[in-house]
Specification:
- A two-stranded antiparallel ribbon has the order 1-2.
- It is flat and about 85 Å long.
- A hairpin with an 8-residue loop joins strand 1 and strand 2.
- The protein is mostly helical.
- It starts with 7 loop residues before the first helix and ends in an 11-residue tail after the last strand.
- Helices cover 68% and strands 3% of the residues.
- Helix 1 packs antiparallel against helix 2, helix 5 crosses helix 6 and helix 8 packs antiparallel against helix 9.
Length: 315
């Protein structure tokens, strides 16, 4: 049930927001502290020092605003996690607790609408059903935006998402960063700029060369520089890198890694619920062939599985 209510989504979002705020605070404070030390060593005039201080004050005010926004986002994510944990812990009072089951159905529908990209309908349903704590609109909007960018041939948003979730992806040993970086290299080769491709490989791609799981793909990619026209190559490994389906492949990889990062299930709650309901229904598919015990002739007749002497053709 914890997976059903996606408690892990706001928890992971909270962790991400905290890390981003922490990075901003650390960077800003280091800059302010370094500025004070530099001013002291340089022996600046009082006027120059005051100007430097005014700049530091502006930086600290901007930091305060960023921290306030981060704190507000963290409170929203905590509230969502609490709402889902409370709902999960309560459970139905019994099989006829229609209020609880109705709320669960609305949760399933909200999740389905979000995954389908119909964010406005999801928002309306969540407001009407009092499910604000179950609405991960920002998360799904980001996912959709990154997917669209990838299918359009742009890695920028996906790489930014990877940067924001770097520690989580490292713990998962995710190949997403490597594949996106590899694609940036491929695009430089495609553009006919081998010098820029080599420079990029030395700066960003070479770090993956010694990793056993990436070394083969790295070598294949580097070999494309020697090809006169890699886009028309008939060698399968090169054709896969430059083929039209490469961007769709990256989008699917991103979807998979997002689910892993946020602890999302592959199938949504509505899919699982409908499938479970269909499996529980007694249809003609629930009928097996068995010998007719009355005449012993071995001819098969329909016997309903789970029937207590009833006819075998239940629908």
């Amino acid at each position: 049930m914890a997976d059903v209510c996606s408690i892990s989504v706001p928890v992971e979002a909270l962790s991400q927001t905290f890390r981003q705020t922490q990075k901003k605070v650390t960077k800003a404070l280091q800059g302010v502290g370094g500025g004070v030390a530099a001013a002291a060593e340089a022996g600046e005039s009082p006027a120059a020092f005051r100007a430097r201080l005014r700049g530091m004050i502006a930086e600290l005010e901007a930091l305060q605003q960023d921290a306030a926004r981060g704190g507000a986002a963290e409170q929203r994510q905590i509230a969502r996690a609490q709402a889902r944990a409370s709902f999960t812990a309560s459970g139905p009072a019994g099989p006829t607790d229609w209020a609880w089951h109705g709320r669960l159905l609305n949760v399933a529908l909200t999740e389905y609408l979000l995954k389908s990209g119909d964010h406005e309908a999801a928002q309306s349903l969540a407001e009407e059903a009092g499910l604000a704590g179950f609405l991960d609109a920002e998360v799904y909007a980001t996912i959709e935006s990154v997917e669209l960018a990838l299918r359009s041939g742009d890695c920028t948003k996906a790489l930014q998402w990877c940067s924001d979730n770097a520690s989580r992806l490292r713990r998962l040993n995710s190949p997403l960063v490597f594949q996106l970086t590899l694609q940036e290299f491929v695009e430089l080769v495609r553009a006919g700029d081998p010098a820029a491709a080599l420079s990029f490989a030395r700066e960003k791609l070479s770090a993956f060369a010694t990793e056993p799981e990436y070394s083969h793909d790295y070598q294949v990619a580097m070999a494309t520089i020697a090809l006169s026209d890699p886009e028309t190559s008939t060698i399968p490994e090169y054709a896969a890198l430059f083929g039209a389906g490469r961007w769709d492949e990256l989008a699917r990889l991103f979807q998979r890694e997002v689910r892993r990062a946020y602890g999302m299930s592959v199938k949504g709650l509505l899919d699982v619920t409908v499938q479970a309901g269909l499996c529980a229904l007694k249809t003609r598919a629930c009928v097996c062939a068995a010998p007719d015990a009355s005449n012993g002739n071995g001819n098969g007749v329909g016997v309903g599985v789970g029937d207590n002497g009833g006819d075998g053709g239940a629908g």
